[in-house]
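FIELD: query
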Amino acid sequence: MGKLLLVGCGKMGGALLEGWLARGLSVSDAIVAEPVDALRPIKPGLRAVASSQDVRETPEIVVLAVKPQTMDGVLPDLRRFADEGAVFLSIAAGKTLKYFASHLGATAKVVRSMPNTPAAVRRGITVACAAPDVSTAEKKRCQDLLEAVGQALWVEDEALLDPVTALSGSGPAYVFLLVEAMAAAGAKLGLTPDMAMQLARATVTGSGELLHQSNEPASQLRVNVTSPGGTTAEALKVLMAPDGLQPVFDKALAAASRRSKELAG
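FIELD: result
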């Protein structure tokens, strides 16, 4: 893998780091740049610096895991690594390949990616897009890094990262909202709020694991639960009506995708 510099070690950066270490990344091959007072506990022996300015050797891969609004202040010092051929892997939402080229140089080797928060339990999914100068071997190295916390997919068209952000990047929030809505509906039917929430959480997490382990499509798993004329069928009449769940999700994802485009400028 070569020397790796992780710039930013918050929740997502920390999840990636833990995944890499679990996969066998040597502490001697990694450097973390993060203000010391904000640094999460990490493996003993791993080198941590307050700023990339304290890094003298050139890393082969620089992973950018800082918040998008702080990226402008981070990149000037990192351009020296781009000039020496380092590959940059960004997980910052809204920061485009064009943006990185303007700060790191037109020929900088940049991979832009959009992960999601289940990466914290190594069940995330990330979609990535590479700048033209990134080689197949370099893309493979970035894929290995991303797969340490879940699945990784690639797109050629960077514009597709906007709907990706809307679907999977923001998607965990929709699932958590579903749990809240199910629990609230259960409480309105007479369950205690605590029991309703416990039932909703277990139902959603259990269904997710069933979906994960099954080879059947989601549509068939839905059919498997639905007895003709039964309780599930009655509920699905509401959820699958023309004014039911699908048009709500269509509007929600369109709004999120539109906002992703706006944030990218």
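FIELD: remark
The mean pLDDT is 94.
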